[in-house]
Here is the input.
Amino acid sequence: MTAQTLFTEEGQKLEVGAHVCAMHETPEPTLGILAQTFAVGLARGERSDYIAPERAAARIRDLLTGAGVDVEAAESGEDLIFITERDSLLKDGAEFDPDYLLDAVRGLFTATIEAGYKGLRFSADVPWLIRDVPGGDRAMEFEAKADEIINVPGIPLLAICQYRLGELDPEDSLSIL
Here is the structure.
């Protein structure tokens, strides 16, 4: 049987191996769901990585603390990792390249499994990652290619890419759907 994880407050389930694009008008509901998803994963012996600006990472820390997670211990033990500087995920520290980012995700996943974790829960604030950098218009290329490594049933990887509707052009919104 494939493991599932709580994804929404209404109790929808996602199978391990899911790649989700969460589109929202305001980030707060998505951050709440993401914190729940991370809390479940941490309790199950999975690592959680979050790529986002510091203010969003701080909100996730607060929500996890409110859910009873010892965030300081999780971070110091590298069970919970916040990547709030995007340069390491950009090619040459300055360009968004879908293949470069996919290699980084593969590396995160491999390091997670080699460290003995049961899986990886990964989320990225994609508009923040691609904002004002060359190649930022290639986000949909990344999403399409990501399915090849993420959306694989049975692979213990759950990825949630976040997008603000106001920052997407209508064509990209349809592509994500």
User: Anything to note?
Assistant: Confidence is low (pLDDT under 50) at residues 1-12. The first strand starts at residue 4 and ends at 6.
